[in-house]
Design brief:
By secondary structure, the protein is mostly helical. 64% of the residues lie in helices and 0% in strands. It contains 6 helices and no strands. Helix 3 packs antiparallel against helix 4 and helix 4 packs across helix 5.
Length: 96
């Protein structure tokens, strides 16, 4: 088995921790500030409502498989707070 197939299998075999109810997730989707935050909740919502391979959820949400994998693993490790965190890094300016 080559590396690409192993990587894909690991991505496809992922579960979701039960941190929140479906109603709580729907509420977070509706109240999320901005499209990107709502899209993260949409990934979690899809895993609960219609469980299917990660690649299909990525296609349905217009995200890459790696992004969907990161969203789910962050949610599993840190809970809902992981999706509420600002994922953008401030611009670093060099002064010399």
């Amino acid at each position: 088995m080559d590396m690409d197939n192993r990587w894909r299998e690991e991505f496809e075999i992922i579960t979701l921790e039960d941190h929140m109810s479906l109603d709580e997730i729907r509420l977070r989707m509706k109240t999320s500030p901005g499209f990107l935050a709502m899209q993260k909740w949409l990934v979690i919502y899809n895993f609960i409502v219609h469980p299917r391979p990660l690649s299909q959820i990525a296609m349905h949400t217009s995200l890459s498989e790696a992004t969907v994998y990161r969203i789910v693993t962050d949610y599993n490790k840190l809970g809902p707070e992981a999706l509420d965190m600002n994922q953008t890094k401030p611009l670093q300016m060099a002064f010399w």
